[in-house]
Design a protein that fits this description.
The chain is of the alpha+beta class. The chain has helices at residues 11-20, 126-135, and strands at 4-8, 22-23, 41-46, 59-66, 72-73, 83-89, 95-96, 121-124. It contains two helices and eight strands, in the order E-H-E-E-E-E-E-E-E-H. The longest helix is centred in the N-terminal third of the chain and has 10 residues, at 11-20. The model has no long low-confidence stretch (mean pLDDT 92).
């Protein structure tokens, strides 16, 4: 059975990842991406809109499925070489996470639920993934 994951990145980076059809986490580190497999579900949570910004955004910003293939390095123009995986992103709507917190297993009854997300990529229950998918109004087609 495929796993489901919650990744963390600012909304600006997630929006770019959707255009590029990729996932990149933890400032381009390879180790977290080696835990995910083709067919796994991925949800992006964005605590802010832009990296380094202090104004909270706290939205679920993308949902998709890991595509076939292994993590790979990508050469950026500035010499940065982050690790990435390809993802088929679903057509979905960005939504605030707050209304879902009481229903999600990783946050229900936990005041400091966000601490676990500091790792950049955490496994979530399939039930949580399906609840998020429904809330983001996924229509089944790639977006």
């Amino acid at each position: 059975m495929p796993s489901a994951w919650l990744a963390v990145a600012c909304a600006k980076h997630v929006r770019r990842a959707k255009v590029d059809g990729i996932i990149q986490v933890s400032h381009g580190k390879a180790a977290p991406l080696r835990r995910i497999r083709p067919g796994d579900g991925i949800v992006y949570y964005s605590p802010t809109i832009q990296l380094g910004e202090r104004t909270p955004y706290r939205h679920l910003t993308a949902i998709g499925t890991v595509a076939d293939g292994e993590p790979y390095r990508f050469d950026m123009v500035d010499g940065f070489r982050p690790w990435r995986c390809n993802v088929v992103w679903m057509n979905s709507t960005e939504i605030p996470i707050t209304p879902l917190l009481p229903s999600l297993s990783f946050s229900s009854g936990r005041k400091n639920w966000g601490l676990a997300l500091r790792r950049g990529l955490v496994r979530i229950e399939e039930r949580d993934f399906m609840l998020i998918r429904e809330a983001m109004r996924v229509n089944g087609s790639p977006g």
